[in-house]
C-alpha cells in the first residue's frame, strides 16, 4: 500500500486516459499502465480462484450515494477473459462507461484513498490532471464538459477484492496532449522553433514553441491533431488476415499479432511480419506527411523535433522523417509525467 498522504502540498495525480492505454502516476509514488479496455464482469467462479496470475484488474464501482454497483474486468483481464469487450471510439470519451472504469481503477491503484465509510481524516484528496487531443482540447464544450464530469465524480472503488476506497478529486485541470509531453523534454535548445509529435492510438498530436532569448512562445499554428495513429496498424493487420483467411480477426488478437509477428489459425501458423512491416512504413510516412503539411512553411525552420507517445516505439521510421528528431525517454509516459508536473503546481 502507498504511504498515507497528509501533506496537501504533494496531493497530486495525473491520469492519461488514451485510446490505447491508460497511464497514471502520482506524487505519492504510484504508477500504473494498462490497456484502455473493459468488459462487464460476471460472478467469480472456480477458475478465478485457481488463476493466480497478475493480469489485469477486477474493479467494483459504486458512484454517488445510491448509485448502482458496476463490476468490470479492466485492462489485460478484459482482453483475455472479457466476452463483451469495450473500447473507446468517440471523442467524448467521458460519455462512455469504459472511461470512468479505467480512470477510477487507475486512481485507486496509484493513491492511498480513505476507506469508504471509514471516516478517516488527514488524507488529502489529490488534484487531478488529465489530457485531451489538441484539437478536442480547443473545443470549450468538450474541455469543460470533461472537467465538470470529473469534478462531480465521487465513487467507492474496490480493485481485485480489496476493501472499497472513496475516490474524489480536490481540483481538476484539463491539459492538451503533446503540450504535456513537452514538459518532460530534458534538453531544449537555447533558441529556435522546437516541435513535439505525440503518436497515440487514434490520433497524433503536434505542439511547438519558439524560443527567443531564453523565453518560450507557443506557436499556435503548429499545434493540432491528425486522425492517424496506431489503430491504423491494427486495422492493417486485420485486413491482411481477412485477405489470407477470409475470416475476421478480433482487435485484441490483432494487437497480439502486431507484437508477435504471427499467429496460429486452425492449426496453421500465419506469418504476418511482412504485412506488419509494410504497414508500419506506410503509417509512419502518412503521419509525417500530414504533420509536416500542417506545419507549412515553418517545417523547414524547425530546429529540433521530439517524438513521444507509445506509437513511436512501433514506428521507428518516424525518427528519419523529421528534421533532427529524437525520441523522448519513456515516450509512452511523456504525457502522464508532464501532466504530473502540472498537477504538482495545482497542489501547491
Q: Any idea what the CATH superfamily of the largest domain is called? A: ATPase, nucleotide binding domain
Strand element count: 19
CATH class of the largest domain: Alpha Beta
Task: Output the CATH topology of the largest domain.
Answer: Nucleotidyltransferase, domain 5
Quickly give the CATH architecture of the largest domain.
2-Layer Sandwich
Sum up the overall morphology in one term.
flat
* CA distance, first residue to last residue: 24 Å
**What's the story with the biggest beta sheet?**
6 strands, antiparallel
The helix count comes to 11
Residue-averaged pLDDT: 87
H and E order:
EEEEHEEHEHEHHEEEHEEEEHHEEHEHEH
What is the number of domains? 2
User: Beta-strand percentage?
Assistant: 25-35%
Cα-based radius of gyration, to the nearest Å: 21 Å
Residue ranges: pLDDT <50 for 5 or more in a row?
Answer: 1-9
Strand order of the largest sheet: 7-4-6-5-9-10
InterPro entries: ALP_N, ATPase_NBD, MreB-like_C
Domain Actin homologue MreB-like C-terminal: 196-316
Domain Actin-like protein N-terminal: 14-180
Pfam families: ALP_N, MreB-like_C
Amino acid at each position: 500500500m502507498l504511504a498515507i498522504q497528509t501533506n496537501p502540498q504533494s496531493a497530486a495525480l495525473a491520469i492519461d486516459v488514451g485510446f490505447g492505454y491508460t497511464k497514471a502516476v502520482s506524487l505519492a509514488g504510484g504508477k500504473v499502465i494498462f490497456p484502455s479496455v473493459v468488459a462487464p464482469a460476471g460472478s467469480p467462479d472456480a477458475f478465478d480462484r485457481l488463476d493466480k496470475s497478475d493480469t489485469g484488474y477486477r474493479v467494483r464501482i459504486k458512484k454517488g450515494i445510491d448509485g448502482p454497483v458496476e463490476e468490470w474486468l479492466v485492462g489485460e483481464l478484459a482482453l483475455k477473459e472479457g466476452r463483451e469487450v469495450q473500447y473507446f471510439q468517440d471523442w467524448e470519451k467521458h460519455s462512455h462507461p469504459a472511461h470512468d472504469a479505467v480512470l477510477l481503477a487507475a486512481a485507486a491503484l496509484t493513491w492511498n484513498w480513505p476507506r469508504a465509510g471509514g471516516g478517516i481524516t488527514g488524507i488529502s484528496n489529490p488534484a487531478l490532471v488529465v489530457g485531451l487531443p489538441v484539437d478536442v482540447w480547443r473545443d470549450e464544450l468538450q474541455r469543460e464538459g470533461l472537467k465538470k464530469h470529473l469534478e462531480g465524480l465521487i465513487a467507492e472503488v474496490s480493485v481485485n477484492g480489496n476493501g472499497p476506497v472513496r475516490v474524489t478529486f480536490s481540483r481538476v485541470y484539463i491539459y492538451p496532449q503533446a503540450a504535456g509531453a513537452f514538459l518532460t523534454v530534458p534538453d531544449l535548445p537555447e533558441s529556435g522553433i522546437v516541435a513535439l509529435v505525440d503518436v497515440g492510438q487514434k490520433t497524433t498530436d503536434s505542439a511547438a514553441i519558439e524560443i527567443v532569448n531564453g523565453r518560450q512562445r507557443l506557436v499556435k499554428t503548429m499545434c493540432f491533431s491528425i486522425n492517424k495513429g496506431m489503430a491504423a496498424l491494427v486495422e492493417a493487420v486485420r485486413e491482411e488476415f481477412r485477405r489470407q483467411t477470409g475470416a475476421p480477426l478480433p482487435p485484441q488478437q490483432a494487437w497480439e499479432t502486431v507484437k508477435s509477428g504471427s499467429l496460429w489459425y486452425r492449426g496453421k501458423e500465419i506469418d504476418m511480419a511482412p504485412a506488419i512491416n509494410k504497414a508500419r512504413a506506410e503509417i509512419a510516412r502518412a503521419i509525417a506527411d500530414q504533420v509536416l503539411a500542417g506545419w507549412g512553411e515553418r517545417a523547414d525552420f524547425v530546429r529540433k523535433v521530439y517524438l513521444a507517445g507509445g506509437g513511436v516505439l512501433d514506428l521507428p521510421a518516424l525518427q528519419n522523417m523529421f528534421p533532427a528528431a529524437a525520441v523522448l525517454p519513456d515516450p509512452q509516459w511523456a504525457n502522464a509525467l508532464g501532466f504530473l508536473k502540472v498537477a504538482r503546481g495545482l497542489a501547491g
